[in-house]
Amino acid sequence: MSYTINVNGRSQSVDVEGDTPLLWVLRDVLDLKGSKFGCGMGLCGACTVHIDGKAARSCITPVAAVGSAQITTVEAVGETPVGKKVQEAWMQLDVPQCGYCQAGQIMAASALLAIKPQPTDQDIDDGMSGNICRCCTYTRIRAAIKQAAGLPTTDTREV
Amino acid sequence: MARMRADDATRTPAPADTQLTRALGESVSRRGFLVAGAAAGGGLLLNFSIPGLAAASAPPGTPAKAYPLNAYIRIERDGIITIQAKNPEIGQGVKTSLPMIIAEELDADWKDVRAEQAPLDPKLYGPQFAGGSFTTPMNYEPLRRVGAAARQMLIMAAAQTWKVSAEQCDTVPGKVRHKSTGRTLGYGALAAKAATLKPPDLHTVKVKDPKEFRIIGQSTPGVENPLIVTGQPLFGIDVKVPGMRYAVFEKCPVFGGRPVRANLDVIKALPGVRSAFIVPGARPTGLPDGIATSLQDGVAIVADTWHQANQALQKLEVEWDEGPTASQSTDGFARTAADLAAKPAGKVAHSDGDVQKAFSTSAKVIEANYEYPFISHSPLEPMNATADFRDGKVEVWAPTQNPGSNHALVAKVLGIPEANVTLHMTRCGGGFGRRLGSDFTCEAAAISKMAGEPVKLIWNRRQDLQHDYYRPGGFHFFKAGIDAQGKLIAFADHFVTFTSDGEKVSNSADMAPTEFPARFVPNVEYGVSMMPLGVPTGPLRAPQSNALAFAFQSFLDEVAHAAGQDPLQYRIDLFGEPRKLPNPPGPGSRFMPLPPFDTGRARGVLELVREKSGWGTRKLPAGSGMGVAFYYSHLGYFAEVVQVTVAREGMVKVDKVWVAGDCGSQIVNPSSALNQVQGAALDGIGAALGQAITIDRGRVVQTNFHEFKLLRMNQAPPVQVDFRITQNPVTGLGEPALPPVVPALCNAIFAATGKRVRKLPIDTADLKST
Question: Which residue of A121, B357, B387, B753 has the fewest CB atoms within a 10 Å radius of its CB?
Answer without folding.
Answer: B357
